[in-house]
C-alpha cells in the first residue's frame, strides 16, 4: 500500500491549467487510441508538463523538452496535479 506523501492536490484536467504553471501527470484517460497517442507524446504518469499558453480552446505545453499544441478536448484526457 502506498502512503500519501504530504497533502495531495486533487487531479484536474490539463485543459484547466493556467499558462506558466508546471504540473505533474497523474493519469491519462479516454479511448485506447487517444491514451496511446498521448502516452507516445510523453504524457505518462509522473511526467512534468509546463503550460506555455492556454486559451481559445487550445493549449501549448512543454513535455520532456518538446512543445505540443493540444485541442482542449484532448487536453481534458490528461489529469494533472
Automatic annotation (TrEMBL):
MF terms (GO), sorted A to Z: transition metal ion binding
Domain Ferrous iron transporter FeoA-like intervals: 12-81
Domain of life, source organism: Bacteria
Gene3D superfamilies according to UniProt: 2.30.30.90
Keywords: Iron
SMART domains: FeoA
Protein name as it appears in the record: Ferrous iron transporter FeoA-like domain-containing protein
Amino acid at each position: 500500500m502506498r502512503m500519501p506523501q504530504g497533502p495531495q492536490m486533487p487531479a484536474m484536467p490539463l485543459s484547466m491549467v493556467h499558462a506558466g504553471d508546471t504540473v505533474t501527470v497523474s493519469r491519462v484517460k479516454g479511448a485506447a487510441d487517444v491514451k496511446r497517442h498521448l502516452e507516445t507524446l510523453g504524457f505518462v504518469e509522473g511526467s512534468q508538463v509546463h503550460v506555455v499558453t492556454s486559451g481559445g480552446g487550445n493549449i501549448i505545453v512543454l513535455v520532456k523538452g518538446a512543445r505540443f499544441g493540444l485541442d482542449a478536448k484532448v487536453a481534458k484526457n490528461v489529469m494533472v496535479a
